[in-house]
## 1
Amino acid sequence: MSAVLETSPFFLRPMLKNDMDEIMAIELKSYVFPWTRQIFIDCLRAGYYCQVCEMHGYIVAYGIMSTGAAEAHVLNLCVSSERQGKGLGRQLLSHMLGVAEQKKIDTVFLEVRPSNSIALCLYDAMGFNQIGERKDYYPTKKGREDALILAKSLAKNIAKSFPA
């Protein structure tokens, strides 16, 4: 199965506090246990890399990534249900990985539900590998679900940095 890349004009821009109504509409529609408005505001306040993807004047996707100590963590990546399956998630994640490379990040981490097969396919296609699990990390309607911890190395020529 191949994704059809979105051909409509879109652009990425920094997330603003004024975007919260549109972001929350997508978040609430996308997740049974969504982030709260305050979590998004806290990410902005903390200075995380927060981007939105806009098409025709509307937010259709967003991503949040924290960086520090040569590591990055993708905290949230979401595409509106109407735009899923058209390559926007891949393009947004690719952009975020490019930003991480520019910041000289060695490794990018993220957590994902094992039940989120669409996200798992994207992360696998983008070169992420499972490195661990977090037990009972996510809430579910009937208890808790583990998280898979995924990582992608961005380090270039690691072997060359060590003398033989």
Note: Residues 88-102 form the longest helix (15 residues).
## 2
Amino acid sequence: MTPVDRKGTFMLGPTLEGERVRLIPPTEEMLSNYIRWFSDMEVTRYLSRMMPPSLTEEKEWFEKTSRSDRDVIWAIMAGDRLIGTSGIHGIDWLNRRAGTGSMIGEKDEWRKGYASEAHRLRTKFAFSNLGLEKLTSSAVVENVGSIRALEKSGYQQWGIARRHIWAEGKWHDMWHGEVLREEWLLLNENP
């Protein structure tokens, strides 16, 4: 089966088991947690979204994304606790590339390595199951934790977009990174 034949097979991601986190298909019942996270300015300070979504907006997003053949989304679980979300977005099936993103919404779970593990699980799925060749991601340069988590998953910086985001009354530069399937496989031959 070619990667293009797989298009539409996974909209809400399948369960992926890690050592400390589990990526599971999100449910509509989880959306209230997402809204709570988007309402916390400390959680969203590096995101481009300025206002939290309403429950109606979040349900519309969930419905649209769960039908998408270009996005795969997960809820990040630490034990039985929902702590964040992760996804592969805008899949270009012809060129076999996509963007990625994650958010750990529970602040008391920051700096515990959960995002790094979620990135590794998501990256393995993208390359092994979807047949993608390249993943990209971006982060505001001050978001050192996100950049570090991406780098631990094999992402390498390919550029800095200067004065790219206006937030908190000032301009911020944006880090851009990518990971190629071939490089990721070399790093993960003997996990």
Note: The domain at 3-187 is CATH 3.40.630.30 (Aminopeptidase).
